[in-house]
Prior knowledge:
4 strands
Amino acid sequence: MFKLDQFKQLVEDFRDVADFLVIYITEAHSSDGWAFNNNYDISQHRSLEERLSAARILLQNDPLCPVVVDEMSNAAAIQYGSHPERLYVLQAGRVVYKGGMGPWGYRPQEVRSFLEKLQ
Length: 119
């Protein structure tokens, strides 16, 4: 959520170049785990229903693209090494950009630079 505005700006600026998708994975900063004081009150998901409920909070902030939810086995998070967050660009089913792991490696500006080259 910290850089959601930057992500939304990417979606707005590059929607004619790319399709965007958010995969909501396990909660990195759950209120019953390693939480920030200013974070949303989201407990670690113990069921798919809880994960779906947490994803609805993201949807309320209008990410401007579809949001899907990872399985409770965390298959997508494991496959993409995305915990706590990571940005990817895929083209024709292949990864053409792999960002660093968040929070410090989560750099929407790098994705912006990459997508500008595709325009």
